[in-house]
Each structure stands twice: as C-alpha cells, then as structure tokens.
Known about the structure:
The protein has 158 residues and is α/β, with parallel strands linked by helices. 46% of the residues lie in helices and 27% in strands. The protein has 5 helices and 5 strands. Strands 1-2-3-4-5 form a 5-stranded mixed β-sheet, with helices on both faces. The longest helix has 23 residues, at 135-157. 30% of the residues are buried.
Amino acid sequence: MKRHGSYYITCSKNTLLVKCIGSWNLETTRLYSLEFKGTVAPLINDHWAAIFDMRNWELATPESMPVFQNLMQWCIERGMTSCIYVYEQSFIKKHNIEQMTHYLERRPHNFSDTQMTDLELAYDWLRSHEHEVNINDLLTLDEQTNRHNVATLSHMAN
C-alpha cells in the first residue's frame, strides 16, 4: 500500500514535538506509530508531554483510528502526562482527535490535554504544566508548517 500524508517527529527536553501533514492512510499511520515510539523512547517512564501540530493535517482514514487509540494508550502507560493539539477551530478535526483519545482505558488523574490555535500558546501552557521545550525546536516545528504551505501553494500554481 502506498503512503499518504507525512509527519515530522523530534524530542525537545521532556517534550515530544510532532507535525502532521496531509491526509493519512493506514500505512502512514502504522509507520508513524513505529517512528513515534522510537523517538519518544528516551522520555519513557518520565514526566513527559507531546505537542501535536495538526494545522496542516487533513484527517485520517477510519481504519487508522485503532492505531491512534493504541498509541495514545501506550503513551499514557509510559508516562505522558500532557498533550496539546494545535489546530484552528475545526469540528471535524476535534471529532477525529476525540476518537483517538476517547477510548483510553486508564486516564490518570494527572493527565491533561488541551487544544490551542498556535505554538506560542502551547509553549506557555507546557511551561505552566512543568514541561520543558527548547523554543528553537518549537520554531523549527513551525517552520515545517511554513515549508508545507509554500510547497502546497507552489503546487497549486502549476
């Protein structure tokens, strides 16, 4: 099966930074899950957070949802205590994200998640929840959005 969609994953201090781009199929979601687990390995069983920049994400196929649900449960079981989803207000994205997290078997009392519209707000929220992230790493994540937007505009012009 051919992959659809892309992503960028990196760690910054005790925070995982994720950029989701395009429309995802099951193949992309499975590869993402594997890379996600490998990248977050140094943070496991510590107090860690994740920022999911979903401003350029165009959702995922229904068969991808169990993969996302299993990954979220895996994260909770391995110490993730905070999760931020960055995207413009969108009922459809909100619904997809709720599908990913709604079925969590054990949601610890110290786990919190939220939605933000930009990375600066996410940075402030993380710091208020005792998480650290290098601001330059966060800016690099934002540059991934800008590169995608330029590539999309260039493609549309041709």
